[in-house]
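Re: duplicated header lines in exported structure tokens

Our pipeline writes sequence and tokens for each protein into one text file. With two proteins the header for the second block appears twice in some exports. Here is an export where it did not happen, for reference. First protein block:
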Amino acid sequence: MKWRYIDIFNFMAKCILAVFLFFGQFAIMAQGTWEKKDLPTIQFFRSVFFTDSLYGWIAGDSGIILHTVDGGDSWVAQNSHTDNEITDIFFLSRNLGWAAALNYIVPPYGTILLKTDNGGATWIPQNYPEENIFITCILFRDSLNGWMGGRPHAIVRTADGGVTWNQATVDTSILAFFPVLTIQFYNDQYGYASGGMFDIAGVIWRTSNGGDTWYAIDPSDAPADEVHSLHIFDSITVMGAGGDPDFGYGVGMIRTFDGGINWEYDELDIQGNATDLDFRNATEAWAPLGQQRKMIYSLDAGNTWTPIFPPDSVSIYDVTFPDSQHGYAVGRDGAFLKYHPPVIPSAPQNQVNDLFNYLLFQNIPNPVQRNTTIGFRIPAANPYIVGFADNGEVKIQIRLFDGFGKIVFRSQEQRMITGNHEINVDLSKLNNGVYFYRLYVNDYLVPLAGAKRLIVAR
């Protein structure tokens, strides 16, 4: 059989197109997809919580609570003993859970707290002891110790499983007593809360002593609108999501790199208000935009964001990922979405293990008198890692911060490839003190590489 030049050209073109479409579909699906699932009601669901990939609860208007044991394929209604709006639901295990319902109708106005120890088969209601406090978020660290936040201002804690609650000590900053929308802890000592008031100020609180004392963000760093949700990378790196629902304003993202002392706020070129924020894995994050009928996602740990329309353009307000392979979201008109992770071609096992595994090592020597060596690891080049050049290179830089989050030293940018590397730095011009350093790749912070403490002492 003889081939004409035109036949060869057409054959090669088809092959190139096939390869492009094959790999292109993975690029398009790199962020995963959402599937809309039917629910037996069209209520506004405000909160979703899954303890694992199968057991979950969703709650919202009119006291509705639905429970699933098969990952959202089927649901059973539970009796909450209230017709009031449920703002948040939280489970510590498949059996032990709490929820908060807001009573604006019958005095005494305030919050009805719900508790179950059998997965919601029975919910026990109890009035929150203080009137006119409306709880919007619940977090328990174990069966006894828990936290709640609410309006008009409240950071309260319990040490007896919710039988009694006490107001936490909050600093007297001008922003200290704004509404609280979410509370999260990184460990037993470090925690953060966020909230604020629309068109007045967004607020973030921090604690470094287990919640004994909370300190509000400096007013000069505060955005104009609420911060609805937080993601804690480590004890000093946190990001929050919010924005302005009014026309023309962008989704807001706020970050700290020094444990909440200083914050940086940016508005995305995407109109809306992020009502929640959750990470599927180390780098993939999702935020619903509520009434904008959009969601945004990031594949680089929140550095850049892309908007998409959810199925049927439903309004989504809350999202959760119990693990890296499963995600769920809820919103208006009975909206419930189930996440399907991206399909990624198989790769050698060591390449999979290295996929997002940038590492930052402790400098040697430490304390430092003049020079010190900082080591780090660059993972195997992979088409699904943002930033790798065609030859597998990335630009590496080490940045050193003082205790106030100010950059005091930048290493010279160097192009490097996969493997363990070291950079020798001269810190002779720095004053004695405690600093910390972080890894930047292609001018972007790598949050999960962590931060290392460095001491200069002569």
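Second protein block, exported in the same file:
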Amino acid sequence: MALCLPLVMRAQTANAEEAAIPIVISDDTGTTLTFKQPVRRIIALYGAFNEIFLALGAGDLLVARTAADGNLPELAALPAIGTHMRPNAELVLAQRPDVVVQLEGRSEAQTQTENLRSLGLNVLTFELNSFERLFEVTQLLGQLVGRELAATALVNGWKGRLQALRSSSAGKPRARIFYEVRYPNLLAAGRGSISSEILALAGGENVVTDSKKLVRFSEEALIAADPDVYLIQQGPMNPAPTPLDERDHYRGLRAVREGRVLVVDEERFARPGPRALDAAEELAGWLRR
């Protein structure tokens, strides 16, 4: 005789079977990790990953933060374990994370990643330099914490917002924009940066054509480009930028003469996280004024 389980018991059995399915995540360095169940203790060594976890409703799984993320109210009370580039391995180990999430990029950070792995920690490393990568990584992190449906809904919402931005600027003249990353020793956002993608989505065009993320730019080249709009990033890389009208050679720029200069928040305009969408929408509104 076939055994007929009550509906509740069948649901519990199904949930148990689903929970038993391992979670397999491959990162951008070729590392593949397998988890028996969704992770419950996470340390993210780059702020955008913390913002993604918060957007997924998984902030309670974060057990520590870097020194740079203390300004996020949701993370302020968490213990600090060093910086993105130089996490303190002892402090990381003390938090017993199921996984550490790191940003792929500079060699110094990767050296620290290998050190953490040598201590037996699970480390996943992802590149995050565009909205497309933001969407992909969000789906992976949603899988990691057992919130796949939430991740899909989040990404679909983001894609809708970006499509609305593209539609609003379609067929319209594009403002030529220069994005200052640092001054002095002028550093600009190249077309390989999330900042440049924000400019394009907002209805602008980056006057810097180099495909790199960050580009050293001379004042002579800037004067020759003569942008319509000048954005000044303010944050850790450019903490106290000098106003343009106080800089030699800058006062004659079209953007300065026409009052089209905007100081923007580095964390929103240069970090490829959820708030980058807010930045694109804010800039689009400002450009339409």
